[in-house]
Amino acid sequence: MLTSIITVCYNSEKTIGRTIESVLKQTADNIEYLIVDGGSQDRTLEICESYRERLEKRGFRFLVRSEPDKGIYDAMNKGISWASGDLIGIINSDDWYEPHAVKTMVRVFEREGCDLAFADIRMHMTGGKTFVKRAKVRPFTTSRDWNHPTQFVKREVYDCFRYRCRNISDDMDLYFRVKRAGYKIVAIHKVLANFQMGGVSNRIPLREVPERILRRYRIYRENGYSRLYLLECIAFELVKYLLV
Questions:
Q1: Which pTM value belongs to this model?
Q2: How many CA atoms lie within 13 A of 15 on its CB side?
Q3: Residues 105 and 132 grouped into a single domain
Q4: How far apart are CA 14 and CA 185, in angstroms?
Q5: Where are the alpha helices (H) located in the chain, listed in sequence order?
Q6: Can you say whether residue 87 is alpha, beta or left, with left for phi > 0 and alpha for psi between -120 and 50 degrees?
């Protein structure tokens, strides 16, 4: 099973090396790695190219494309269009995989016959402390148990669903739409990725919290969920604000 890994980046010279290293250290071999850059003005592309020889020596197909985009999810959609893998994972330039991430997911998809899977993730706070956010698939839908950097999706699913490029919660929206459509989803109780808090989706001025609450709530409602989810949205965004 060929696995395509996509990294979206823009002016990421401080962190992109760690992300690429985590792909290079994968225990799986049948990997295609695509870096989708938004036209960086720093050393991001230079750093990416410095890894080409090592990645290709591992037998990985390595593709770097740099051009302006309409935001992070537009870049993800481009990467998905360029990918040729049976399985697609997306790890952003602030985050990084555990060495066994791809091999674990390939085995899960082969064993379970699932369409989408995600796993536990280790959250790294700005002060250096960490905690593990557990992965679960509950009878009711909530984003509290879902971790996008650990998510792998079959090519066929992405052929039917793409990120809608509306706001920073587009990843949650796609997950909800896939779940609502009845695809088989599996949660893995193993840490497969690391998330650096303080990135694009976590920089929250207090004045923006109400808008973020309403945005999350709209996604729940658009996918047919109860008005009671407003309470969950309030709690989720307030906890995120306090942690960051």
A1: 0.90
A2: 18
A3: yes
A4: 34
A5: 16-24, 44-50, 52-57, 72-82, 101-112, 155-158, 170-180, 209-222, 229-243
A6: beta
Tokens coding 16 = 């992109």
The answer on pLDDT for 45 being more than 90 is yes
**Residues 14 and 7: beta-carbon distance below 8 Å:** no
Write the CATH number for 30: 3.90.550.10
Q: What angle do CA 59, 6, 140 make, to 5 degrees?
A: 130
CB atoms < 10 A from the CB of 118, how many? 26
Q: What is the pLDDT of residues 65-92, one digit of tens each?
A: 999 999 999 999 999 999 999 999 999 9
Type of residue numbered 121: I
State the total domains in the chain: 2
Question: Domain range for residue 131?
Answer: 3-203
Q: Which of 29, 27, 26, 33 is nearest to 5 (CA)?
A: 33
Same domain, 120 and 234: no
The angle at the Cα of 156, spanning 180 to 92, to the nearest 5 degrees, equals 85
